[in-house]
Amino acid sequence: MSVPGPIVVGTISYAVLGAALLALVMGARITGAMSKDNAQIGQVVITVAVFFSWMFWLCAWLHQWHPLIKPIYEGE
Questions:
Q1: What per-residue confidence (pLDDT) applies to 76?
Q2: What is the CB neighbour count within 10 angstroms for residue 25?
Q3: What is the pTM of this model?
Q4: Where exactly are the transmembrane stretches of this chain (predicted)?
Q5: Closest-CA residue to 9 (of 53, 58, 67)
Q6: What does the pLDDT read at residue 23?
Q7: Angle at 59 between CA 66 and CA 18, to 5 degrees
Q8: Are 54 and 11 in contact (CB under 8 A)?
């Protein structure tokens, strides 16, 4: 049993998004635009937000993958 393609693509997309946002925070910390404490808070917030956004997307995708209830159309 293999993992469906959209799950792999979506997971990689969220990983790239998270890495890019963490790199922005790290860059802001290195250039001095952000204090060490604010950068640490930003890293935690970004990590948690990206993880739970991915979880929400994954649950929504999986719920639509094989629906248990099929729609009933009026007039048929």
A1: 57
A2: 19
A3: 0.82
A4: 12-32, 44-63
A5: 58
A6: 97
A7: 135
A8: yes
Q: Determine the straight-line distance between the first and last CA of the chain, rounded to whole angstroms.
A: 37
Nearest to 22 by CA among 9, 11, 34: 34
Q: Name, in order, each residue with C-beta under 8 angstroms of 58's C-beta and a sequence gap of 6 or more.
A: 7, 10, 11
- Residue-wise pLDDT tens for the chain (76 aa)? 788 999 999 999 999 999 999 999 999 999 999 999 999 999 999 999 999 999 999 999 999 888 777 777 887 5
Q: Phi/psi class of residue 58: alpha, beta or left (left: φ > 0; alpha: ψ in -120 to 50)?
A: alpha
